[in-house]
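Entry for the shared binder. Reason: the reviewer on the internal report wants the predicted structure included alongside the sequence.
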Amino acid sequence: MNTSITSPASAAATPAATPVQFTPSGTDTDSPWHEGEIHMQKLVGVDARMAEVGKRVLRDHLIEQHRQFYPQLPFAVFGAVDDNGDVWATLRANHPGFLHSPDPYQLAVNIPRDPNDPADAGMDDSKAIGMIGIELHTRRRNRLNGTVTRSSDDGFAIRVGHSYGNCPQYIQLRNFEFTRDPMAVVSSKNKLHADWESTLNDQAHAMIAAADTFFVATYLDRPGEKREVDVSHRGGKPGFVRIDANGSLTIPDFAGNLFFNTLGNIIANPKAGLVFTDFANGDVLQITGDADVIIDGPEIAAFQGAERLWRVFPRKVVLRKAALPIRWRDQTDGASPNSLLTGDWETAERKVAAMQNAITWKNLKITRIVKENRIIKSFHLEPLDGTGTLPYKAGQHLPIRVTVPGHDKPLIRTYTLSSSPSDNRYRISVKREGVVSSYLHDHLAEGDVIEARAPAGDFSIDANAKRPAVLIAGGIGITPMISMLRHIVYEGLRTRGFRPTWLFYAARTREDRAFDDELVELVKAAQGSIRLVRVLADPTDAEPRRDYEASGHIDMNLLRSLLPFDDFDFYLCGPPPFMQAMYDGLRGLNITDTRIHAEAFGPASLQRRHDSQPDLPELAPASSTETKVDFSSSGQSTIWKPVDGKTLLELAEDAGLAPEASCRGGNCGTCRTKILQGNVTYKTRPSAKTAPDEALICCAVPAATEDDSNEPLVLEL
């Protein structure tokens, strides 16, 4: 039982993984939470809210509901610390009634001592203990911690320190049955291995790879020699715990109650004990070791639903065969809805691999084509090479490149993604109105291949913001809005909190509208948090309320008549005249410019009236003299003349070059080009963001120099 291995706690699962660094001050807090929990809460900006929540939900006694709940349970999970300071998690089972509360400050536990269980050494009288009672067939669970009061080897009581309820997220529904007398201690030889790559490897790996559930114990010694042990449930899709090459385990941390009991303990005292069980045969796998928390990195962005990662580096591993007297069977359709909204490591690793080549053009296969209406088709796209789609934000666009017959070079266009980041695929919905869109509509079929680069664009929405959002779409402007709605619904289901949203969608006729069925389903899934207002200019043959909510056009009178008095964020997308009218109308209602977000189409960029922004620098004046422009990669040079007023993109094309470009209005960012020498400016401030050494050449011109020097402008073209 005392054999141990030392795992390299500094060995990272991935090169980009940097653990949270935190050193407790050694002083206690006046909050219900300790320093580690508060630090994690601060990292996500909820510390003030959690301080109030903690005062309400953390109790030093069992409420009546919990006193009635615990006697119903056939098992419980305990966390305890042995004499070496190692924390262990364990499952112990007995017939319902083995847990009971003689008074609100105690929970009696009728289970005998088990010398085969490494956690048993931490269950002596006066020792700290943590527990979670969980009813797998109903998803109910409650937690408590406290101190052991033991007078015999047949059981003990827990003097309650903290008691509170837990939500039902990530719990797989399972029914139970006992297969033997739970009070009989089964003789079993523990297999404690000093080598993670030993015989235990296959058995442990198999249990972990199949697991959709495990439990974790952590602890902290608070000032005043007060030890607190916590036990928590973790769930996901089977295989959500990854075994890394160095033997460490990496676990995605999904949306939860924001208490951060487990992760707060880990950053303050980097130890953890895990317990996995094979629900079908009663095998128990217990692991104790060192742990850390990672809050940033490509794997978090790539793993759907992950908000951070945490890792465990095993030092002691115990496998107990058929240790439990109880067995469970999965209920039909019993998978947790929350777990189904999360990702898996295979998909995440494909996405991470795709990130390595994010700036290159990739071949995408058209897997499905859907006719949304008479002029809009949706193209579903997946990487041809089997790597994953890149993470992107709802509302961003996808640059694509196609070779159209009759053109001597590939044509580049950007189409807004109408899929959600959680869809693990791309979907572009294209209106037939130009050379490339007509080619897509008329000549491409399922199975064909197009080229695409990483999604880009600054038009996106924070689905977790509290301020209500108003989405206003005209015609094909529905494409980013459908992406945003899908994202809002996914995040609402994932976090159990929907951002209140209104969608105003204008079309000429009912036949001109797209995504009717999808919009209805999204509204239904949002559980009352999304309000849809469909506006038809020509409601002929359409039925009010069934087919539309308003006739005519979207204007300020309509918005004022339907929107409640509140503080909104507005999102606009549609043809340029439509967007300009919406923007001007909102500004006329004293809506600040920063609350109006817009996706512009083509060179007719939205004309904004900015609020006072002293941190926004004035655009430099354009050069008033002829300027030499060198294109370094091609070895070409030309002269820019103020009288011509050409953009740098037009200048490059006149010189026979073919830079990548799409919108020609500074909106999409496709034309970003590195500046090797000199400076540029713009007649109108572009919406796409650039680095200090980049230019959007589709709308850039040489900037005036302070000393009127004739220094050439050098671009990497």
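Summary line for the report: The first helix runs from residue 35 to 43.
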